[in-house]
Amino acid sequence: MAKKRLFSGIQPSGEIHIGNYLGAIRRWVELLDDYECFFCIVDYHAYTVPQDPKTMQQRIFEAALVNIACGLEPGRCTLFVQSQVPEHTELAWILNTLAPLGVLERMTQFKEKSKRNEKNVNAGLFTYPVLQAADILLYRASVVPVGEDQSQHLELSRDLARKFNNAYGRTFPEPKTILGDGARIMGLDGKAKMSKSLDNYIGMDDPPEVVKKKLGPAFTDPARVRRNDPGNPDICNIYTLHKLFSPTETQALVNTECRRAGIGCFDCKMMLHEQMTAALAPIRERIRELRENPDVVHEMLAEGAEHARRIARETMDDTRRKMGLR
Does an H or E element contain 81, and which? Predict the structure, then answer.
């Protein structure tokens, strides 16, 4: 039986960090054997905020490089850049004619981002979920792995697929959501999600000495003022990272020793540093290899775009025909 098709995307919005890896990329790699996977670097989506044209191509390259190094290798999936497949924006326009204004106005992310960027509330930010729906439906994806913060957008994708099918005939599947493991990766400051813009992150390519330096002042259990204060690892972000990087026996040791004040926060961080270094070493080595051979990355993206364009053209030929446009 043919595998169901899966789609997901990542913006080239900055250095890829362990929050991106733990929250999305690692999960994508786990799904490679179960689905026919399409992963897209969604560069058009990045332009809802101002971008520097001089750095965009490098950021696209870095996003591709790290994703490949993490395991999204050609032969196991299709990795490509959104702007190299023009059918994304063509289908987005068609879906815009079906998207209810009131539904877009109620999108939680639009409301939140509008408040944070009051001087740049543009139409692209408003219709962002429609382009996201086009990204998914263009490949007739059956499943989409997302976090809970994107579930509202996935519901819109299903609604738009249903509206088009009812108006013009069965064309798109209604994509189902595959939720992640629920891990919300907080930044090292303990105040917000990990983000390069907030400088509270650990980059996937950070060398061990840089990671050690960043972990030093990282936020922990606020109740532990002194080393002999008992702690609660359940509210400590360092322990959350232990659960994602450390083997079970290390997690158990940290949990027990923290609660009885048998281990200090600095010692706990250094144990985490050791586990992170070991876990990320193969990925960092692959990053180094790819960075020394950039043509390999460009060739992989070109192959991915060629395959994606084939699928996209088939979808749009069918779409136009059913709409009476050819």
Answer: strand 78-81
User: Is 111 labeled as catalytic in the residue annotation?
Assistant: no
Q: Which of 137, 120, 148, 11 is nearest to 66 (CA)?
A: 11
pLDDT tens readout for residues 78-94: 999 999 999 999 999 99
The count of C-alpha atoms lying within 13 angstroms of the C-alpha of 80, restricted to the half-sphere facing its C-beta, is: 25
DSSP 22-51: IIIIHHHHHHTTTSEEEEEE-HHHHTTS--
Query: pTM score, two decimals?
Result: 0.90
List the catalytic residue out of 4, 163, 196, 243. 196
For tokens 């990045």, the residue is 46
Question: At CA 39, angle to CA 108 and CA 141, rounded to 5?
Answer: 75
191 catalytic per annotation: no
User: Which domains does the chain possess?
Assistant: 5-185+294-323 (3.40.50.620), 208-287 (1.10.240.10)
